[in-house]
Structures are given as structure tokens and as C-alpha cells.
């Protein structure tokens, strides 16, 4: 395990790279446990959640409960986004998504598994439950 200060020195885009995988894995695991949809439907739900807009919305759900240390990672992650933004999203969403990914990468690198679970639970309650409920009612 790296010391928190060592992890803070990592490139924020590198933390976002890891955090993207951590976050997507959490979403997939959650969907597998809480949905009886087909793999194609699960993929469609996952891509709605794990996209720049979905991750930006997720960040907005947790920002009020982040510690000062976590807010610093989010700020640095948001500011580190590369200048070129994918065509299918806005710069605002892309930067917020990078910030969320950097946060999850940072928490993973510091073995903050309980904090990851806590934040992901808030995201589930505010975003993912509603998506599953809407998907199951169709």
C-alpha cells in the first residue's frame, strides 16, 4: 500500500485511468447482483452510468459528503483533464467524470475500500436504483 502522500503525487490522469476501471467494475457487480436483465441490457445500462454525463451526475451526488482531502483530489482531477474532449460529450461532463475517476483511483490506491463502498452506495441510491427501476418497468 502506498502512503496517501505518495498517491497524491501520482498523475491525476493515471489515477483516473485506474478509477475508471474501479468504478465500472463496481457498477457491473452491482447490476449483476440487482438485475435479471440480459447481458445486452446490462451493457446498455452500464454505458448509461459509466459515461461522462453519468459520472458527472454521480459526482454531484457525493460532492457534499466528501472530505477536504477528497475534494482536493476531485479539484485536481477536474483540472487535469486533457484539452481534447471526446466529440460525444461536453467539456464540463468530461472534466467532472475525470474528477470522479481520479477520486475512485485515489481511494483504491490508498486501500480505502470502505469509503469506496460508502460513496458508491450514495451513488446507487441517487442514480442507479432509479435507472434499474425505470428499466424494469418497461
Search tags:
Ribonuclease iii, N-terminal Endonuclease Domain, Chain A, mainly alpha, 138 residues
Counting DSSP H or I runs of 4 or more residues, the number of helices is: 7
What is the CATH H-level superfamily? Ribonuclease III domain
Uncertain regions spanning at least 5 consecutive residues = none
**Might you state the CATH topology name?**
Ribonuclease iii, N-terminal Endonuclease Domain, Chain A
Number of domains: 1
Broad CATH class:
Mainly Alpha
Brief summary of the model shown:
With 138 residues, the chain is mainly alpha-helical. It has helices at 4-8, 12-34, 39-49, 52-62, 68-79, 91-109, 113-137. The chain has one domain (4-137): Ribonuclease III domain (Ribonuclease iii, N-terminal Endonuclease Domain, Chain A), CATH 1.10.1520.10.
Describe the protein's topology.
Elements: H1 4-8, H2 12-34, H3 39-49, H4 52-62, H5 68-79, H6 91-109, H7 113-137
